[in-house]
Amino acid sequence: MIIGIGIDIIEISRIQNAIEKNPRFCDRVFTKTEIQYTDGKKNKFQHLAARFAAKEAFFKAIGKHIAWADVETINLPSGQPQLVIYAKEDFGFTRSHISLSHLADHALAVVILEKE
Ligand SMILES: CC(C)(COP(=O)(O)OP(=O)(O)OC[C@H]1O[C@@H](n2cnc3c(N)ncnc32)[C@H](O)[C@@H]1OP(=O)(O)O)[C@@H](O)C(=O)NCCC(=O)NCCS
User: Fold this and answer.
1) CB 3.0-4.6 Å disulfide test: which of 8, 13, 93, 115 passes with 53?
2) Looking at residue 23, what is its pLDDT?
């Protein structure tokens, strides 16, 4: 049974500006794994913005805001993204699904939460 769905779209320039103005923004919002994944990519801000959108989409799916770094996007060897949630709180879902997309200017994420 689907118990939550969230979507978010973000301008990549917004994330790039936030990081360039305040380097601590990156460490507060993104996990080490997320930063490592995006470091060395052709346009790392595209991937970071998608991960930011993933956090916002997750917040919409659970109906509340939790710490940014408690919501992490990892990638399987195939490239498929997956959510890892570090918060101790039980949000009632047993399975999560995520999909990301980015263009030159915008990044988008969709999250679906299921309870088996
Ligand atoms: C994977 C694919 C769907 C990405 O689409 P795209 O239009 O190039 O790029 P988009 O911006 O829409 O999506 C990029 C996101 O797709 C996701 N993605 C990558 N591989 C994926 C996969 N196998 N399954 C689901 N999602 C995937 C990632 O989250 C990626 O963003 P990230 O690198 O920041 O995490 C596309 O490359 C494709 O259709 N490839 C053919 C299938 C394929 O190669 N599968 C992988 C086999 S190893």
Assistant:
1) 8
2) 82
